[in-house]
Amino acid sequence: MYVIVSYDISDDRRRFEIMSRLKAMGYVRVQRSLYMARGGSALAKDTARALTRLMGREYSVVILIIDGQTLNNAIKLGTANLSIISEPMVI
């Protein structure tokens, strides 16, 4: 399972805060306002709680939970990259 987060936020500071929070939660950037992480409903709910604290009511965030097959069937154009590192990185 994967969690996809897309947002439409015009305020630079808010957008940066949300981007930073998503990265801290393990999301990888797919496109400018599209992030993806391995996880299910628990991660999606945690993400919703975290982003609700950071965003204003005037902004839009969509959080989707999809299975691996749906991700594999996605149509990718241009430089879109929907791959996620399957194993945690050890530094």
Task: Walk me through the structure.
The chain is of the alpha+beta class. Strands 2-3-1-4 form a 4-stranded antiparallel sheet. Helix content is 35%, strand content 25%. 14% of the residues are buried. The protein is globular and about 35 Å long. It has one domain (2-73): Alpha-Beta Plaits. It has helices spanning 12-24, 41-54, 68-72; strands at residues 2-8, 28-31, 34-38, 60-66. A hairpin with a 2-residue loop joins strand 2 and strand 3.
Write the layout of secondary structure elements.
Layout lengths: L1 E7 L3 H13 L3 E4 L2 E5 L2 H14 L5 E7 L1 H5 L19
Antiparallel strand pairs: 1-3, 1-4, 2-3
Helix pairs in contact: 1-2
> What structural category do the secondary elements indicate?
alpha+beta
Strand content: 25-35%
Query: What is the count of helical runs?
Result: 3
- List how many beta strands DSSP finds: 4
Keywords: Antiviral defense, Endonuclease, Hydrolase, Magnesium, Metal-binding, Nuclease
Binding site for Mg(2+): 8
InterPro entries: CRISPR_associated_Cas2, Virulence_VapD/CRISPR_Cas2
Subunit structure: Homodimer, forms a heterotetramer with a Cas1 homodimer.
Q: Which characteristics define this entry?
A:
91 residues; Alpha-Beta Plaits; 3 helices; RNA endonuclease activity
In brief, what are we looking at here?
With 91 residues, this protein is an alpha+beta fold. Helix content is 35%, strand content 25%.
